[in-house]
């Protein structure tokens, strides 16, 4: 009933024809490790290098998934949202995102610090969250 | 082409509780989008091998989580993450729990024990939380006092009883969490008004 190649596909996981780490060219760790699930990413509209020249990545620099991310992040999106939209595992998504940040094509905003050790979330932030929730 | 949008700041709240207790249901009830699902690989390289005993023979396991979002303002977005039902995975996943504003533990009165591990987890990590008793089956026959005793809850941990399918209840649970966080923030400020930072030993 089940052809042998279906078993192989199952072992590959994710139901994808492409092994996820093929998309990252075998890399399993991002260039930077400071992305969290809620780091917010925004596509740079007019990317420039350090000399002010426009950045035009060659067609061999970016994978189709990179381009899909740049399209998705025209509206700011968190790492988890990008991963869900692209149907890729979070760790694979982070590698692709780090590539784009390194090329100056994507901006990353770290989450607000709410660490208890540093005093927890401030009251102003909590009040803003409360006001927003009340409108639900 | 539209002008560049400024990225909003993001915070997250964890929605925990035993398997099938209504975590994704609550996320969906309050989220402005249908719950999204994403996956992560967790490898045994990041944990003691014992932690994977009995779960899987493979070195890598895949864990799915559902999440939603609430845009509080153009500058601020709250993400709600339903945690994987098996708490033992959380320790493998620092990214999920680090930096969380707080947590919600959903419990079902017919099987309160399935939420013990979530409560233990938040307590051990020092993450403030509230408890939401989900009675969408309409079978809650226990009082808040009985439930508190059964869960061994600290008296100051808020406990709400309602139906997590309903947005107003989900909203009230989240508001109770925020109020709880504000209370903690104020009381900690009063408790240590002249706190002197202690030198942190290297390493």
Could you explain how this protein is built, in words?
The complex is a heterodimer of chains A (136) and B (203). By secondary structure, chain A is mostly helical. Chain A is 40% helix and 7% strand. Chain A has one domain. Chain A has 6 helices and 3 strands; from the N terminus they run H-H-E-H-E-H-H-E-H. In chain A, helix 3 packs across helix 5 (90-102). Chain A is globular, with a radius of gyration of 19 Å. Chain B contains 5 helices and 7 strands, in the order E-H-E-E-E-H-E-H-E-H-E-H. In chain B, a hairpin with a 2-residue loop joins strand 3 and strand 4 (76-82). Chain B has a 7-stranded mixed beta sheet with strand order 2-3-4-1-5-6-7, with helices on both faces. Chain B is α/β, with parallel strands linked by helices and 203 residues long.
Estimate the helix proportion of chain A, in percent: 40-55%
Low-confidence stretches of chain A: 1-15
Q: For the residues shown, what is the average pLDDT of chain A?
A: 82
Give the biggest sheet of chain A: 3 strands, antiparallel
- What is the tally of beta strands of chain A? 3
Shape of chain A: globular
Strand and helix map with partners:
The complex is a heterodimer of chains A (136) and B (203).
Chain A: H1 4-12, H2 20-23, E1 40-43, H3 64-72, E2 77-78, H4 79-86, H5 90-102, E3 106-109, H6 123-134
Antiparallel strand pairs in A: 1-2, 1-3
Chain B: E1 9-17, H1 23-30, E2 36-43, E3 60-73, E4 76-82, H2 94-97, E5 100-107, H3 116-125, E6 129-134, H4 144-151, E7 159-162, H5 167-191
Short descriptors:
heterodimer; A: 136 residues; mainly alpha; 6 helices; disordered N terminus; B: 203 residues; alpha/beta; Rossmann fold; 7-stranded mixed β-sheet; 27% helix
What does this entry show, briefly?
The complex is a heterodimer of chains A (136) and B (203). With 136 residues, chain A is mainly α.
């Amino acid at each position: 009933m089940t052809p042998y190649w279906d078993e192989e596909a199952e072992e590959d996981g994710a139901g994808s024809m492409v092994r996820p780490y093929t998309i990252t060219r075998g890399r399993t760790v991002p260039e930077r490790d400071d992305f969290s699930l809620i780091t917010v990413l925004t596509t740079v509209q007019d990317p420039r290098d350090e000399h002010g020249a426009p950045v035009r990545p060659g067609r061999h620099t970016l994978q189709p998934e990179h381009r899909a991310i740049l399209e998705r992040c025209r509206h700011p999106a968190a790492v988890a949202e990008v991963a869900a939209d692209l149907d890729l595992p979070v760790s694979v998504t982070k590698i692709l995102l780090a590539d784009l940040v390194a090329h100056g094509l994507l901006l990353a905003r770290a989450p607000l610090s709410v660490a208890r050790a540093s005093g927890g979330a401030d009251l102003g932030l909590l009040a803003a969250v409360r006001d927003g929730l009340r409108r639900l | 082409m539209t002008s560049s949008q400024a990225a909003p700041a993001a915070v997250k709240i964890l929605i925990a509780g035993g398997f099938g207790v209504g975590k994704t249901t609550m996320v969906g009830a309050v989220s402005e989008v249908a719950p999204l699902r994403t996956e992560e690989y967790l490898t045994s390289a990041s944990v003691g091998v014992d932690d994977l005993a009995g779960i899987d023979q493979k070195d890598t396991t895949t864990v799915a989580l559902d999440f939603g979002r609430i845009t509080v303002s153009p500058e601020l977005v709250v993400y709600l993450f339903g945690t994987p039902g098996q708490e033992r995975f959380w320790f493998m996943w620092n990214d999920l729990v680090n930096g969380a504003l707080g947590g919600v533990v959903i419990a079902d009165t017919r099987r309160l024990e399935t939420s013990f591990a979530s409560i233990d987890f938040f307590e051990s990590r020092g993450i403030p939380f509230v408890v939401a008793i989900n009675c969408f089956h309409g079978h809650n026959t226990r009082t808040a006092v009985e439930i508190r005793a059964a869960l061994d809850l600290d008296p100051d941990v808020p406990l709400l009883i309602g139906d997590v399918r309903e947005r107003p209840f989900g909203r009230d649970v989240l508001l109770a969490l925020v109020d709880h966080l504000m209370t903690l923030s104020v009381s900690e400020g009063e408790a240590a008004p002249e706190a002197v930072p202690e030198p942190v030993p290297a390493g």
